[in-house]
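Throughout our pipeline, every protein is held as a single compact record rather than as scattered files. Such a record has a labelled line for the sequence and another for the backbone structure tokens. This encoding replaces a full spatial description with a residue-level series of whole-number codes. For reference, a complete record is included directly beneath this paragraph.
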Amino acid sequence: MGRRQKVLVGTDAMTDLARSLRRSRAAAGLTLRGLATKSGYAHSTLSMAESGSRLPSWEVVEAFVQACGDDPATWRDRWEVAATGTPGVESAEHKRRTRKKLVRAGGVLVTAALGIATGLLWPRADQPAPPGVQLADGQDPYRNGCGQDQVQIDSRPLSWPGGTSYGSLVMFHSSKCHASWGYVYGPNSSEWTVHIQAHRDSDRATVAAELSAAISRPNSWGDALLSNTGCVYIEAYITKGGVDGPPTATNCYREDGTVIHAR
């Protein structure tokens, strides 16, 4: 008979996260050792994650809930609240991020570089749109308030060069902004680049982002394309050591969520 777990009685965000992790594992019918086998993390690491005594890293939580059959996208804000007290705010050890944005429409390619420096807030999913701003192709969806009503439309596995699992590509859509964009769940480092491209079929518009970070929280997102003038699909791949990983792509979705082209 296994040792009985300590009852969690706190009401703080970290305790609530631990309690939710326990419920997720119970719903999946997994023991901690079974979860360790599926997630690739040690039994002791997973036990600590659901003990409520220490905040687990996002990578541990992501692997934990994926092994339980849950979508990590629905857990991200919960972990951020436990880590910082606010969803979407960058924690102290994750301060710098570099984005190279490529926007192509009608055969014209425009390149811009954007550095997010120390001290700036990470875009929040519930961040309101700046007054008087109407979203345009190639804009950051979170800095323009599109995360307030974001809905996950599609999700695809994403691999490293060589084929091992890196994470997943998710396509988000905002009805308020009439736009869709790509979000990649996975680690960041200056040693590799995450490529996220949004394509619109009707006019062959493309918005592409090349993202790498020396010190960064996990996960990356691309810029948005308006989806009220045609269906949009998302592509992503990883480059490491000069080698491109296999690309993955979502279906092409129209504004109402209808699949136009299956990929």
